[in-house]
Amino acid sequence: AIIDATEAITLDPTYIKGYYRRGTAYLALHKLKQAKADFREAVKIEPGNKEARTKLNDCDKAIKKDKFEQAIGMDHTPPSQVDPDTIQVEASYTGPRLEEGQVTAKFMEDLLEHYKNEKKLHIKFAWQILYQVREILKKEE
Fold first, then answer.
1. How many CB atoms are located within 10 Å of the residue 3 CB?
2. Does pTM surpass 0.90?
3. What is the pLDDT of residues 64-83, one digit of tens each?
4. What angle is formed at CA 14 by the lines to CA 10 and CA 18, rounded to 5 degrees?
């Protein structure tokens, strides 16, 4: 599909279906930057095309989601059971730490600053936060 769409675009650079189809193929392959570029071009050619605009927005959302997952360290599939207390924090880790296992205002301020510097939260603290949230949600049921 990518090869055919690319050939169609080469023959007619204003052929919106070529960009749309190639963008859809890239999106299916999770090649988000390429997909976004094609949908952006389709919207430029035909600004009123709702389908192309929707796909462009979908690409933006997927890119943001990927960046968020990378920022919080979701580079792998999490195991079904994790005991955060067994996870060692490396001496080289300079990011925020939970105070007595609890989220505090200071921790959140430090975490925001840490993220602004494009650094990741240690997986131990991420798991501790997730378990605390789970307990809060269980109580609300």
1. 9
2. no
3. 988 888 777 655 555 557 78
4. 60
Which tokens in the block code for residue 47? 């600004």
Q: Coil, strand, or helix at residue 105?
A: helix
The amino acid occupying position 100 is E
Cα separation, 107 vs 99, whole angstroms: 8
Residue 80 corresponds to which tokens in the numbers above? 């079904």
The Cα–Cα gap between 134 and 136 comes to 5
Using only C-alpha atoms, what is the Rg of the chain? Answer: 22
**Which one, of 10, 2, 9, lies nearest residue 42 by Cα?**
9
Which string of b and e fits 84-113 if b means at least 16 CB within 10 Å? Answer: beeeeeeeeeebbbbeeeebeeebeeebee
Tens of pLDDT, residue by residue over 25-52, are: 998 888 999 999 999 999 999 999 999 9
